[in-house]
Input
Amino acid sequence: MAIAVILAGGKGIRFGDAIPKQFKTLGGKPIIQYTIEAFFFHPDIDELIITYPADYKAEIEKIASAFSGHKAITLVAGGASRMETTLAALNVIGEQRKKVLFHDAVRPFVSHDIISQTILALDNYDAVDVVIPTADTIVEIDAAEKQLTAIPERSRLRRGQTPQGFWADSLKAAYQTMDTERLNHFSDDCGVFLDQNPTAAIGIVAGDDKNIKITTPIDFFLAEQILYSGQAASRSVLSEKKQKKSVIIFGASSGLGAAAIQAMKEQGWLVFPASRSTGVDIRHAEQVQSFFKEVLNKTSTIDAVVIFSGILKTGKITEMNPSDIREMIDVNLVGTINVALTAYPYLKKAGGHLLLVSSSSYFRGRANSAVYSASKAAVVNLTQALSEEWADDNIAVSCIAPRRANTPMRRKAFPKENPAVCLAPEVVSKEVIGMLMHPQTGLIKHIY
Output
């Protein structure tokens, strides 16, 4: 278990907005709210300390009030600098020998995997930093900022992210022994710690390109793209992690569904397939409801529901048969909603997982696939909405978006396409297994 310190004491001058960037609205809520969610709903974080600009107390209190229950949240006014803010948080923690993670409030897309790995790495190191490789060449310049003086070897360079992990008492000791005039020459806590403990073992954890720090307007634009594409999720549901699951698969007769059944059986899971060929048409809610009741007579719980059912018909929308348009909407979207509504009480009881299937075409409508692309975009929106609505019920809702896959539906729609350029269904099945084993909700997984 660990304490999370969310550093939100800055004014965000570089962003150039009237309010600190951590309070700027992103996708309908303040940036800092995503960050708080990431740590508050992580099972290994048992306490949060949130720092804030002194004149924004009312704003942070309002945001924090939405989080209540099993974890304590302490609000602490930040200092005049990043380092003074860290020290203010450490003073609240006191002399505890406890793991503490410091994280920038404006990194809203930190994954639960990164948090978990940082906490775990502290068992073997004095401190931990989250880093990613640099694609750019880094150069060193002189103090006058006029000339290049060195080009370090790029293979050994990394870009630092957060969280940074420490043992609270050790980091506090480093701050207490640091000359206050030198303190503000540092930009992060690992720098302070290493300066005072030059022989310390500081481990590294692999970060993520999506774990961006929103510092400038272009960063905000990138954050919007990450958010709307579903490439980041900040919340885990506290479901029981079962190694063996009972799973219902719709669209199971061929293609991705059939491959997923085989992969799940190899995992030792109990699989219940449904398709139109077995008398279950997801366009008809009563057929879906009857099938769930049949399954419950064969197993005590339904742990996961996966919807592979889909229709793809191509052509210019002005030349398509209206019945084909209606069928695609009814199967791809209305049918998915029918299954989701029926699955809800069963998954709530089990703390289960609803996995929807979209397509890589969802984020860009393509000529001759207008209705298909639009319906698959709606599936992504549905995933994002349900993941928020159902999180308190401990239901994970996620979605995969594979690029073109070698399936009968694809081959029928594009008979001249070379199957070698398409994904093998077995590749998709592996990702499906991984998604169903992951506790995080709201993820949209692109499969390339």
User: Anything to note?
Assistant: Residues 322-350 form the longest helix (29 residues). DSSP finds 14 helices and 19 strands in the chain. The chain has a mean pLDDT of 91.
